[in-house]
Design goal:
Layout lengths: L1 E2 L6 H10 L7 E6 L2 E6 L6 H8 L6 E5 L2 E4 H17 L7 E5 L4 H12 L3 E4 L6 H11 L3 E4 L1 H7 L7 E4 H10 L18 E8 L5 E7 H25 L16 E3 L7 H14 L2 E4 L6 H11 L3 E3 L4 H6 L14 E4 L6 H10 L8 E4 L9 E4 H6 L3 E5 L4 E5 L12 E6 L6 E2 L3 H7 L6 E9 L4 E4 L7 E3 L2 E3 L1 H9 L4 E11 L3 E10 L6 H9 L10 E4 L20
Parallel strand pairs: 4-13, 6-7, 6-8, 7-10, 8-9, 12-13, 14-15, 15-16, 27-28
Antiparallel strand pairs: 1-19, 2-3, 4-5, 10-11, 11-21, 16-17, 17-18, 18-23, 19-20, 20-22, 22-23, 24-25, 26-27
Helix pairs in contact: 1-8, 2-4, 3-4, 8-9
């Protein structure tokens, strides 16, 4: 088993300094949900406390979208007003509030208003179709939905009795109804392990599962991320003694992060929003579909210092014919997440953003792990470009065989991890929860990988069924179920095919039911109930039956070409 203290270089020394009694990130052991776990001795205990502490950044800008520019003062006052407005509408502790909108300041305000009351945010995927929205609504049973017009129109009527705040039409009145209040007026106590948010992730049942994260989990994400950054900075500096900062550019007075990662994702809500909350950073959003030229202009205009290159975002920016015409020198941090980035893409980012070359890195985690399980960056990422790093402080991780036995270093198997921050459960799905989390609170990530002799974790992305396309998780069975329901399809198999920009593309192999199947018709059929990113882009129509093993399971490796 590997834990976040074992290392082979100055990293261990840095960790010991930071986590020792009196250290900046002092660690202690406490009981968390019936199991001993490493936690930070000094920590916030709720997201309401996080909002209160963010007020210290006062008139610094926090959330920017075109002409909307909210300072931290604006944000904290709007959170208090929105919380009061939610209370007036009957929302209380344990109730669900659905948010179904594009990235915008109102999304962030709504999230912290609801969680400050002890309500649970049901974070809807902004690309869902009506069928997917209706399923999530049926599962999470929200008391109220906060949505934008475009997504409401796409999702249809949904549940007629569900109260809805339409951002473009109702937001000003919604905030005004709670004006003049303070979060200090909220008397409902919050516990660290109270649920805070449901993030939906595709499951092997073919329907989204709702991973429930606690207040402790979200705060732990932020604090452990800062800890990982401090360890890396100290280690890099000591490994480059010729310069005070290891040769990296000086940090800016305020980080400015490009908010392209969706807020219904770990990367957007946790990695971007929570970190900006605790560091006084600014997040810059934009409307509409991803447009490389518009984003490059935004980087120049706002002095963006950091962005997450999920999926093909980085490649599309750098590959734009006008890339060199924009000033991108402000970018000093480029990160990857959602799926491993190829060494070629890593080097492309280093060359295109030279001021970020030493800070290019990635984190490995999931909606279920909540916090980052392993991370890598800087020089070690150059040396081990196919690794996702060493186990983060506060985490334990091990590789197990299908029977649950721990495997030795170098052997590939299922990745299991444990921390104080692991999801509480899959919402209203005890069977899936029991399958994912064992009685000792170890989480089966569903990933396949191994450790090397130095404790670096490697993931075999082809060994799992999950498809990662533009950092979106796609389970083939959901698409297979839809295809198999088409009258011209006898059977189907779906899997991921490597792609240089999107990570993977979705390929469908279809056996027709007596007559030819039309890929365009099948794509339209899928698009009726599946989000666009799940619709196959590669099709193979074959006459022979799908290859199966004696148990009747399709042997997909025989279909790869």
């Amino acid at each position: 088993m590997w834990v976040g203290f074992r290392a082979v270089d100055g990293r261990e020394e840095a960790i010991q300094e930071l986590t020792a009694p009196g250290g900046l990130f002092e660690l202690t052991t406490e009981d968390v949900l019936g199991q001993p776990a490493a936690v930070f001795a000094s920590r916030m205990r709720s997201l309401r406390e996080m909002v209160a502490k963010a007020a210290a950044f006062a008139d610094q800008e926090f959330l920017v979208l075109q002409d909307q520019r909210l300072t931290f003062d604006d944000f904290t006052s709007q959170v208090a007003a929105a919380a009061a407005a939610l209370q007036q509408r009957g929302v209380g502790h344990g109730d669900r509030v659905a948010i179904f909108a594009a990235n915008c300041p109102e999304w962030v305000v709504s999230f912290f208003a609801a969680t400050s009351l002890g309500a649970i945010v049901s974070a809807y995927n902004g690309w869902w179709t009506a069928d997917e929205v209706n399923y999530a609504t049926s599962l999470s049973q929200p008391e109220l939905m906060i949505a934008d017009r475009a997504r409401l129109e796409r999702s249809g009527s949904g549940r007629p009795d569900l109260a809805c705040v339409v951002i473009e039409d109702d937001w000003d009145g919604f905030i005004a109804s709670g004006a003049g209040t303070s979060l200090g007026d909220v008397e409902q106590p919050l516990a660290e392990d109270d649920p805070a948010v449901i993030l939906f992730t595709s499951g092997t049942t073919g329907r989204p599962k709702g991973a429930v994260a606690s207040h402790r989990g979200l705060i732990g994400f932020a604090q452990s991320t800062l800890m990982n950054g401090a360890v890396r900075a100290i280690t890099e500096r000591r490994s480059n003694p010729g310069t005070e900062d290891g040769g990296a550019p000086s940090p800016p007075d305020q980080t400015v992060t490009l908010g392209t990662s969706p807020l219904f994702h770990v990367s957007g809500l946790y990695g971007t929003t929570l970190i900006a909350m605790v560091t006084g950073g600014k997040i810059v959003y934009r409307r509409g579909r991803f447009d490389p030229e518009a984003v490059l202009q935004l980087i120049e205009d706002e002095g963006v210092t950091a962005f997450a290159s999920l999926g093909s975002i980085g490649s599309r920016l750098v590959g734009h014919p006008r890339f060199g015409e924009f000033d991108t020198s402000s970018v000093i941090n480029v990160s990857f997440g959602g799926a491993p980035a190829s060494p070629a893409v890593q080097n492309l980012m280093r060359q295109a953003f030279p001021n970020a070359a030493q800070a290019v890195g990635m984190g490995y985690g999931s909606s279920e792990s909540v916090a980052v399980v392993a991370a890598i960056g800087g020089g070690e990422y150059r040396e081990r470009p196919t690794s996702c790093g060493r186990v983060a402080v506060g985490f334990e991780a091990e590789i197990r065989d299908p029977d649950g036995h721990v495997l030795p270093t170098g052997q590939e198997g299922e990745i299991w991890c444990r921390s104080a921050y692991t999801m509480l459960e899959y919402w209203n799905d005890p069977a899936s929860t029991a399958a994912a989390i064992d009685p000792a609170r170890w989480l089966n990530t569903g990933d396949i990988g191994c450790f090397d002799d130095d404790g670096y974790l490697y993931i075999n992305s082809r060994a799992r069924d999950l498809i990662l396309r533009n950092a979106e998780n796609i389970y083939p069975i959901e698409i297979e179920y839809r295809l198999d329901a088409h009258p011209s399809v006898a059977e189907s198999a779906v899997f991921g095919v490597e792609h240089p920009e999107t990570g993977q593309e979705v390929k469908a192999v279809v056996v027709p039911d007596g007559e030819d199947a039309d890929p365009d018709e099948l794509a339209a059929w899928c698009r009726e109930v599946l989000a666009a990113y799940k619709v196959p882009t590669l099709w193979e129509i074959r006459a022979a039956p799908l290859p199966r093993n004696p148990a009747g399971k399709v042997v997909k490796r025989e279909l790869y070409s």
